[in-house]
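[Meeting: bench + compute handoff]

Bench side (C.D.) handed over the final construct sequence. Compute side (W.E.) agreed to return the predicted structure before the next meeting so the bench team could plan truncations. Sequence as handed over:
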Amino acid sequence: MSYNILVMSFVDKLLPKDKPQEYFLTLKVGVETMAAIVWEVRGSKIAIIGQGNSTIEEKQDLVEAANIAISQAENSLPPDKIVEKVIFGLPVEFIEANKIKQSTLLELKKLTHKLSLTPLGFIELPEALAHFLKTRENSPSSAILLGVGPKNLTLSVLRVGKIYENITHARGENFLQSVEEALKKLISNEVLPSRVLLYDESSNLESLAEELVKHPWHKNGAFLHIPKIEALSKDDVINALVESAAAEIIQTVNADEFKTTEVKEEVPAGAKAEEKEVRRDEEEIKDEAGLLGFHKNKDVLEEAPIEEEEIISVERTPEEIAPPPKKLSGIKLPSVHIPKFHFANFHLPSLGGIRFLPIIIIVIILLALGGVGVYAYYQIPKAEVRLLVGVESMQKEVEIILSANTQTVDSESLTMPAQTIETEVSGEKEAKTTGKKNVGNPARGSVTIFNKTTSGSKTFPKGTILLANNLKFSLDSDVNVASASDTGEGLTYGKTDAKITASVIGPEGNLGGGNNLTFADFPSSSYTAKNNEALSGGTSRSVSVVSKADQDNLLTDLSTELKEKAKTALFEKQGEEEKILDESMEVNVVNKKFDKNIDAETTALKLALTAQIKAQAYRTSDLNELARVILVNNIPPGYEFSPTRTNIKVNDIKEEKDGSYKASSIISASLLPKVPLEKIQRDLAGKSLSDAQDYLRKERSIVGVEMSIDSPFPFGKDKLPLKSQNIALTIAGS
């Protein structure tokens, strides 16, 4: 399975334009499991090439588990390609103070050395999921991320796309009780997001999510609404890690830090080699200025010599990291230019010895500076206020029609314009054969056939079956046997010799001489046969051949791969406003050619396939218009429709006779409360932060607020700007 991800600048830096195509490895390290993902850059997209998984057994180091997972993931790579650069995906419990714990560092170092990997950095799972949700939902999300591990629970508070808090709590026997205890440990638990997302190593996330749904959340005052519980799939976590690597969420490392250095150390006589190795590795962690580019009480950029080509710098966007505190180097006031006037016949009277002239001049200057300062204090400071509001969800199940014969949305018939996007893809795939077949020679020899009847001669056609000891033999040619004759002393049977062949190949058809044979279709009282000499020459051996199941399975596998390949091509063809309806995707085989037929002796079967893929696409603006018409009568008072939060889920799609598609769909939308932004903007002007918070608490629709002030003045840092237009108000759903 492959997936397509937009390439960000981080990947551009990893792939210099003058170097050949590279493959990258993302290694998700868990407590009990390991997942490896190999991906590459294709044009302006990233495609997942292969995946592998392994279990970290007890008393097993990470190297063995990683080797198994990576080997599986590399199966899809070309034979001449290898993966060298790795990015680690780590749970919160492996990280402390934004650094990887030393015990984990030691294991990761062994892993990279023994598997010849170059580390690029690591990603925290909550950070990766936050970025993933923002990308998928087209807006910053708010939620409680609940990582369910075998021994611990990890809770991360996500507000408007940012992780504000991570805690780890021991998982007890009672899952719900452990979650309640973990929630109480959160610092920011006054008002929690009304959404809980489960993820990570547990194999029964769905059942745990059902337990949480049944929990009496109305008794927990930290939630304004009953939280919506969801379980993220393993594919979602994998996608999040790869997308985060592309979107510069990782923290970079210096690859030179992973080079092993010799540590001279006296080892007592009799000490085990293993103990010496462990002690040496531990010393390397302390003496090598830190693994993965993290140093205790030091700044690697200031104290370590760095080669430019070995360091990959990451430029994070404002949404990914909080801005650093500003340093005040002094107050800069706007300069005021005073024009000079010249009058030819006018002179100021001489003030002579007026003693107060300097004081008057100073007062005038101070008043001028004060006026300029007041004006600057009114004009310059700016603030950003993000209001978190409760979101109401609505959905309705309807049957919509997607038709290429219409250009506008028909709200009465619920018809949306659609267009067909198609492409043709080709590929080859080889697989091992599973069919088995015995080949060899059957036993052969001669028999004498006796005709005991007096009614006349008897002709036996070629292929007539004779039986002996549960073995079947057949005549090699037509045989005529004369009738028996009466000599007066008794009957003399008619007889003739004939060639026969065993019906099966192999030594089991061999038969010793002197055996009586009977005819399958005639009584032994009339006709019999006897082999005076042994029937021999039967041999057999088992060989691999092509079975029908081999051809069917190879066709299915290659069709699935081409469908994923075609998805990438179709997504590249779609416009910015277009969305492909996955359920409408059709695969039509244009040409297929197997290199071997059924029952052909071979150990491998190859298939060349060309397929045409087509799908229906619609415009998001049309969907928003249709959703507004469908849901408008059900919007509760005080809320308004949000076009950016509209989604369609198709359960069933059928092609109609006129070429249109009828889809049984669930249209869902999120409603935002109506907030008087202009009034709030005016009322907030000049308020202190505490007064602003008290004021905003009176608005029932507002459940949280984030404020940041940008001012060059050393005073008034706790007040919003006096000029209301300098307060930028935005709304985000919680």
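W.E. noted at the follow-up: The chain has a mean pLDDT of 77. C.D. will use this when planning the next construct.
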